[in-house]
TrEMBL record:
Cross-referenced SMART domains: HTH_ARSR (SM00418)
Alphabetical UniProt keywords: DNA-binding, Transcription, Transcription regulation
Name the record gives this protein: Transcriptional regulator
Taxonomic lineage from the root: Bacteria, Pseudomonadati, Pseudomonadota, Betaproteobacteria, Burkholderiales
CDD domains to which the protein is assigned, alphabetical: HTH_ARSR
Alphabetized Gene3D superfamilies for the sequence: Winged helix-like DNA-binding domain superfamily/Winged helix DNA-binding domain
Organism name: Pandoraea aquatica
Molecular function terms from GO: DNA binding; DNA-binding transcription factor activity
Length: 120
């Protein structure tokens, strides 16, 4: 992943390899469900126990999926005491969306606008 500077902030920009890695990680039902749950949770994220309970996943299964998402850079982890909290890497998600729509429809304005006006 390479970073480019913008006037007021840093923006994550994906290359082909990073995009393929992220898409491959999301191309599995449980991992997609985990990622979407963490997007809803926002920057605070959720503990491993809360994720497992919300999705009905066994700890070993969840651990495998969290590792795959983390390896793709789609989630981050932080430890607080005995608990590990995971959060969606919103900058990476937005970079992936940007990568997929970068040259949409030959630059025709308005054709590649997101369905939802919400942005993270």
């Amino acid at each position: 992943m390479r970073m480019t500077s913008m006037p007021d902030a840093m923006q994550t920009v994906l290359n082909d390899t990073d995009a393929v890695k992220a898409l491959a990680a999301l191309a599995q039902g449980n991992r997609l469900a985990v990622f979407r749950l963490l997007v809803v949770a926002g920057p605070g994220g959720l503990s491993v126990g809360n994720i497992a309970e919300s999705l009905g996943l066994a700890n070993a299964t969840l651990s495998f999926h969290l590792k795959e998402l983390a390896n793709a850079g789609l989630i981050t982890a932080r430890q607080e005491g005995r608990y590990i909290y995971y959060a969606a890497a919103i900058d990476k998600m937005n970079a992936l969306i940007g990568f997929l729509t970068e040259n949409c429809c030959g630059g025709v304005p308005g054709l590649c606008e997101p369905v939802s006006p919400r942005k993270c």
